[in-house]
Amino acid sequence: MAQQGRTVQKHQRTGHLPPWRLAPTRCSIAYGQIDLWRFRLDLPDNTLPELTRLLSADEYRRFSRQLDPTNAKRLMVARARMRQILGSYLQRPPEELAFAYGKKGKPGLGDSGRDKLAFNLAHSGVWGVLAVTAGMPVGVDVEKFDTQLEPLTLARQFLPAEQVDVLRQTPACRQRRVFFRAWTATEARLKMTGEGLTSVLEPSAQMQNSTSRPFTVGRGYLGAIAAAGQIGELRRWKLSEG
Ligand SMILES: CC(C)(COP(=O)(O)OP(=O)(O)OC[C@H]1O[C@@H](n2cnc3c(N)ncnc32)[C@H](O)[C@@H]1OP(=O)(O)O)[C@@H](O)C(=O)NCCC(=O)NCCS
Fold it and tell me: CA 228, CA 208: separation in Å to the nearest integer?
């Protein structure tokens, strides 16, 4: 415990995030803390039935409609993991959780759990990430680092003018990474508010007043979280080794 305390202090001093640690089976969270969870979505087919049984009929129907079967499986795994993780905070069976949806589709807890937890899910490629906190809206984004994309072209389309200027002044060899950092932070802020991608170029006051932190998920994947308040302690949990 003393060792863990020293480690947290060191991370806070250096501004680095703590490593991904194996998750406890029961979790709790306080205001200002944020837990980030990462989990693989490319699980072997024989593990799927025990996860898909956790989904509601609506969720199962929605994900089954995906044309790409690999994508459908990954979306189901992500939603099942989200249920398991939230269940471990609420000490409720994952399959009993009910979600309510904002105007643009942001899921939240639909019953008494709403007062206790805020959360947001993101998935990209083989990784899913869930951010969990208490008492303030949170958003998360994760993106697979695409080495082919043209950062300046995309930035002109999707980022505000001042960020395009920053990118223009960035050496070419760093532009892609800088674009991804800016993009994931923007999308995390947007997901925090629950607004759709339409509001990227006209950020709301809530988006502008939010705080954001970048993080890496696994090799080749970048992420960001955003919260409507100060981000205090940030813990990172993984569901299995790897
Ligand atoms: C939210 C949004 C930015 C996510 O983009 P993405 O990069 O494709 O997906 P991510 O992996 O980052 O996140 C997806 C998850 O975010 C959550 N989510 C869905 N809508 C959300 C919203 N409006 N705000 C925050 N989170 C949202 C869901 O948990 C979703 O995963 P799931 O459906 O598998 O459970 C994008 O889907 C969007 O703009 N949605 C709004 C659509 C809209 O405006 N609809 C009009 C009215 S219906």
Answer: 10
Around Cβ 210, how many Cβ atoms within 10 Å? 25
DSSP string, 86-115: HHHHHTS-GGG--EEE-TT--EEE-SGGGG
* Per-residue CA distances from 30 to 15, 133, 151 (Å): 20, 7, 38
- Name the pTM for this structure: 0.91
Domain with 66 in it: 23-238
Q: How high is the pLDDT of residue 3? A: 40
Residue 202 DSSP label: S
Asked whether 74 lines ligand 1 (CB < 6 A), one says no
CA 194 to ligand 1 centroid distance, Å? 8
pLDDT in tens, 155-211: 998 888 888 999 999 999 899 999 999 999 999 999 999 987 776 667 778 877 889
Atom 34 in ligand 1: which residue has the minimum CA distance?
A: 75
CATH of the domain at 91: 3.90.470.20
How many distinct structural domains can be found in the chain? 1
Domain assignment present for residue 18? The answer is: no
